[in-house]
Amino acid sequence: MILDGLNEAQRKAVLTTEGPVMIVAGPGTGKTLTITRRIAYLIRQGVNPGKILAVTFTNRAAREMRERAESLLGKEAMGVFIGTFHLLGLRIIQDVLPGEFIILNRDDQAEILKPLLKGSGIKVHRAAEIISRMKNLLEEPDQKMKEIYTEYQSLLTAKSALDFDDLILRPIEILADQTYRSGFTHIMVDEYQDINAAQYRLLSLLTQTTCNLCVIGDSDQAIYAFRGADITNFLNFENDYRDAEKIILKDNYRATSTILRASDQLIKNNLKRIEKNLNPTREGGVPVTVVSVPDEKAEGSFIIREIEERIGGTSHYQLIHKTENSDGGSHCFADFAVIFRTNAQSKALEESFHASGIPCQIAGRLCRFPGNKLEKALIERKEILERGLPFDEFLNEVINESGLASEFGESDLTLLQAIASHYKDVAPSEALSGFINELILLTPSEIYDSGADMVTLMTLHMAKGLEFRVVFIAGVDEGLIPCSMKRDDVDIEEERRLFYVGMTRAKDELFLLHARSRFLYGQRLNPSPSPFLKDIPGELVKNLTIPDRPKEKKERQIRLF
Ligand code: ATP
Ligand code: MG
């Protein structure tokens, strides 16, 4: 079952369990699927699940991987550590320093920084950014930041507090100390192209005692270059592990060949890359639709109309369930994603969705998520759990009793339930601390429920690793893609990779929307289409132009009143 349906290269990746392995492959070639199968295979081979570590880039990706591993293996998969670098870091810290410490959220961090910045002319948000960058790149503070940084760190120590980046830095210190052993014998890292200097350091310390390290990624999808990530990560890996087995996956199972060719032609324009040939397994497909709309409102309306057409009848939304699959049956809402470059675009799109009644969730939105309150409520009532209630039922009871149900959105509750269900057979104290760890690390931008039947609205950065039947990229305008607004240092190749990540999320259909007039950052602009559109060959594209709306008489009459 574990090897079922895998192609030869994927099979090899699963079966090569000893020594360093590097899997480099384009989007949709089954990299993530292969790691999941590899975890299952390792356990079947008798490796203790507790010695297996799989690092993912987001909590969501971790959850999906865990679910897939569990469906292959059942409970055996529970003991595997599947999580982000931050969750891993947290676990290492808790192993060594089980005492009380707090993790600062952005607001807490701002409170600490504010008084330190008086007279420096540096804004809080900027200082937090500089500190985070330094910690991620393992750099020393420059002259201007030195004093602020030192004071900041000593305040953190005094409060027994850690900021988010310390979840990587502290474990580096702990592991460098030699006495602590993490005990992992088989380590896998997905989206390896995006690891930064600190994560790289952590990883090399973890592999001091094992060389069974498997890294997986695609350098064309490196979208965190500002943190020092690009093809150099893979080049370094080959240097560090000269005997590494290199496995290339060539078959793309996700996209139609049209979408695959269109995205391939785009990314070929990057100079700094390793050329690869992707082989489509799905022939044909409809052309990529490039749509020119009058403004951002028309952009939203166009998207809504296309979704409605595929769902079939707006009045039946509530009746439609996820019964059909991608074999040409009708679509469900979760089959659609609307992806954009900056959060500033989400408001207009969200308004269009709300007006239409189509259910949508916005990943990447700064939402209110009362995680701290829930944590407190769980701890206050922990004796209920100790009486033997399964963790998921305990969570329900606490949410209801504490009156927090009304403070969480419906999709947040579903997500919490999904996390809690993983802890239902775990010892009470472990379940509670495990759940709370995940809760702390659920950054607002990740509050997103992959199981809910809703259209997803999200930024290009958030879309990494995901796939949808129909993808709309909104704002394919000059100034947004590549994003040069409000910035003076544009890395064109990175921006092209980001657009590539967006395009390659699509399985069946891809729409690229450009607005001739757009209200953004407080002003009305008249952008040209994105220059990247020229990279896509004309024969793969269908162009549509939605004409300007005629000025409505009615509107003028209303104004006269
Ligand atoms: P990305 O680079 O975007 O993260 P990926 O390489 O991780 O992509 P997956 O998400 O693992 O790709 O797989 C893409 C799709 O292809 C999934 O729907 C997966 O189920 C399917 N797939 C992968 N391998 C096979 C296979 N051998 N046979 C059929 N479908 C497959
Ligand atoms: Mg993947």
Give a short summary of the structure:
With 561 residues, the protein is α/β, with parallel strands linked by helices. It is built from 20 helices and 19 strands.
Report what the structure shows:
The chain has about 550 residues and is α/β, with parallel strands linked by helices. It is about 40% helix and about 15% strand. Strand 2, helix 3 and strand 3 form a beta-alpha-beta unit. Helix 2 packs across helix 3, helix 8 runs parallel beside helix 9 and helix 11 runs antiparallel to helix 19. It starts with 7 loop residues before the first helix and ends with a helix. Magnesium ion binds next to helix 2.
Ordered list of secondary-structure elements with their pairings:
Blueprint: H1 8-15, E1 21-25, H2 31-44, E2 52-55, H3 59-73, E3 81-83, H4 85-96, E4 102-103, H5 106-116, H6 124-137, H7 143-158, E5 161-162, H8 166-176, E6 186-189, H9 197-206, E7 213-217, H10 231-240, E8 245-249, E9 251-256, H11 257-267, E10 279-282, E11 288-293, H12 296-311, E12 336-340, H13 346-356, E13 360-362, H14 371-380, H15 382-386, H16 391-401, H17 410-421, H18 428-441, E14 455-459, E15 468-473, H19 492-503, E16 506-515, E17 518-520, E18 523-525, E19 541-545, H20 553-560
Parallel strand pairs: 1-7, 1-8, 2-3, 2-6, 4-5, 6-7, 9-10, 11-16, 11-19, 12-14, 12-15, 13-14, 15-16
Antiparallel strand pairs: 17-18
Helix pairs in contact: 1-2, 2-3, 4-8, 5-6, 8-9, 11-19, 12-13, 14-18, 16-17
The chain binds adenosine-5'-triphosphate and magnesium ion.
